[in-house]
Amino acid sequence: MTNDQTFPRRWAMLPAVLTASFMTLFDFNVVNVAAPSLQHDLNAGSAALELVVGGYAFTYASGMVIGGRLGDQIGHRRMFLIGLLSFGLASLLCGIAQSPGQLIAARLLQGLTGAVMVPQVLALITRSFPAHERPKAMSWFGMTLALGGVAGQILGGILIQANLFGWNWRPIFLVNVPVSIIAFIAATRLLPQHERSARHRFDAVGAIGIAGSLGLVLAPLILGRDEGWPFWFFLIMAAAIPLFVFTLWWERRFPEPVLDLNLFRSRAFAVGLPANALWLGYFGSFSLVLTLLWQSGLHLSALQAGLAFLPLGVLFAVVSVLGRNLVARMGPKAITAGGLVVAAGLILMIVELQVKGGDITVAWLLPATGLVGIGNGFAFLALIGSVLANVSPTQAGAASGVLTTTQQFANAAGVAIFGSLFFTFLGSRTSLAAYASSTRDFAYLALICVLAAAALALRINRRQPAVTPAAPQQPVATSR
Questions:
Q1: For the whole model, what pTM was predicted?
Q2: I need a labelling partner for 172 at 20 to 30 A (CA). Which of 20, 111, 217, 306 fits?
Q3: Which of 76, 70, 106, 56 is nearest to 16 (CA)?
Q4: What DSSP string describes 258-271?
């Protein structure tokens, strides 16, 4: 039985699940433009601000594998609905927080609920769409990622500048509440109800081991710059190694591991993950560095800085949709092609920053950021699809969880590492010329990451299509 016969509402379902991806990315980026308002209104120090931003990234990245596996075991529909409703509640708690501690706790919860919800998105797409329709569905997913990141910058600036009801920064979180309710109502009516599976044993040891390993690395990276990188931070990061080794040992022996190591038998999966990590490590920090250049170097307002991202985001979104057929035909080579376009944009940026220096303007940088947007739109679908290409339906949640964990861990680690290097390049200087030279030095590092990801993509088997993960072998049927 085909998907057309068993689940005719799959296209109506898509906006409901993509709303979840949009909200989590929106909330990841929106706090960047809200930082000054948060600092003033809550009397928050720099360490508290780092935790407001990084705490979300920490629980979001750490919980992805667990959320994906729970989807496989309990049901993607059920876990998506639980995560969506919980995300709305966590957003409400963020919006009514009265102290830095309350906001940090709410952000930790918000990241965790996002980790429950988001792995189900790719799993639901993989299971609900037949192979020939999946590239189109994935292109809309890619466009949503692009718009979510840009909307965080632009809408965040608009909401803060509007100061609705005198609530200052609070609407950036409260806006999620009605959106979550509407999406929840739509999802209960539209999401597929896959067949029940046998009872499962939850791998608590593996879940704690994975979350703990990621946490031991991410927490020092997030807080290191503000705390002056004390020696014991490096000891904490080193402790992640034996914990992760033990976790792998356990996962090989547990009958239903939260991290299914059989996934890594696929070359596309094993090679595609580090390619995704390199790409997301550069892209998350790229947005941060440009924000610093525009707001601190060029003294743009939060709204103006957000609007400066608009060409990049629009081109990312448009290419994601219009280029899907070409990406599907090229397979993993689309990653390499997109990487070369991004590399061209970064090289152009390096030249512009070197030549103009303290006279640089946003207008001068728009061609370079436009190329970065085009390259990302072309490569990002292939990065996701190459990893999920031959994943079975029963592993869809686990694979999506591993992929999204890798992406978000790389995103958070990239922001922490490259952000620290950027401030090291900058030193105590505050001039536009200093910000321009520091951005140029960062662009060299970003170029290395992009070219490395493009080179890795050449090792993925060409016969595995980039955006057509394995078609579901089980019909969409009875309720779970």
A1: 0.80
A2: 217
A3: 76
A4: SS-GGGGGSHHHHH
